From TrEMBL:
<dbReference type="InterPro" id="IPR031304">
    <property type="entry name" value="SLT_2"/>
</dbReference>
<dbReference type="GO" id="GO:0008933">
    <property type="term" value="F:peptidoglycan lytic transglycosylase activity"/>
</dbReference>
<feature type="signal peptide">
    <location>
        <begin position="1"/>
        <end position="23"/>
    </location>
</feature>
<dbReference type="GO" id="GO:0009253">
    <property type="term" value="P:peptidoglycan catabolic process"/>
</dbReference>
<dbReference type="Pfam" id="PF13406">
    <property type="entry name" value="SLT_2"/>
</dbReference>
<protein>
    <submittedName>
        <fullName>Lytic murein transglycosylase</fullName>
    </submittedName>
</protein>
<dbReference type="InterPro" id="IPR023346">
    <property type="entry name" value="Lysozyme-like_dom_sf"/>
</dbReference>
<feature type="domain" description="Transglycosylase SLT">
    <location>
        <begin position="33"/>
        <end position="238"/>
    </location>
</feature>
<keyword id="KW-0732">Signal</keyword>
<dbReference type="InterPro" id="IPR043426">
    <property type="entry name" value="MltB-like"/>
</dbReference>
Amino acid sequence: MMKTILAGLIAAATLATAAPAFAAACGNDGAGFDRWVADFKQQAPSKGISPAVLDRAFANVVYNRPTIRADRGQKSFKLSFDEFMKKRGGATIISRGKSMKKSNAALFASIERRYGVPAGPILAIWGMETGFGNYMGDQHTLSAVATLSYDCRRSAYFTEQLYAALQLVARGDLSTTAKGAAHGEIGQTQFLPLNVIRYGADGDGDGHIDMVRSRADALASTANFLKGHGWRTGAGYQQGEPNFVAIQGWNAATVYQQAIAYMGAQIDGG
């Protein structure tokens, strides 16, 4: 019996040594990140990502400590609606939103015809997320997403985001040097990579979805996101109305949802 058990253990050890690693080990600090990257690059071609894309995408990827600090420091929205509006500059967003609606009237009319979403809530989102494209983040996007994919806290979720980011690189819709928010959010309305894959729209007709440099792409994609989350043409979007559900899909915080609805209504004219 002992010989049989020993033989079995030796065989199992031999198989374990010979078998490829099918899952890169996550970690909670940067010590194992380089090994994780090497393992990930071995696995990724089986998911349809070419070695050439992997080499380009990971050329400048590093373990991103600002991303980890931001992830560990997240706090729930505990402000009242009035406090939140003041902190986020709600009055300024409304004022500037009205101006942006006028100066981009043709674009917003086209988006509403296509998706059924009026300008107000899109402008409210645009204003709150990046100050109308002025503050899109300064963290290397691929490093941020790869770091969170490696990090054990939400590894599976962000591994999905990393594969989506690599698809965007492969099709020319994400630069390998792109910068954005700490969790890998991209562009003027801060889409995570998988949402670009699912809801990204070519608003300017150039054959690409550029969430950073194309205002039309970012805003059309935002409308498409809302439509994909149940937006109904012509229905209201305040709390208790049908389209508030779509706004809830944008952000889980109730006060954030309320702010989008309120500011959107003010921008749309009451």
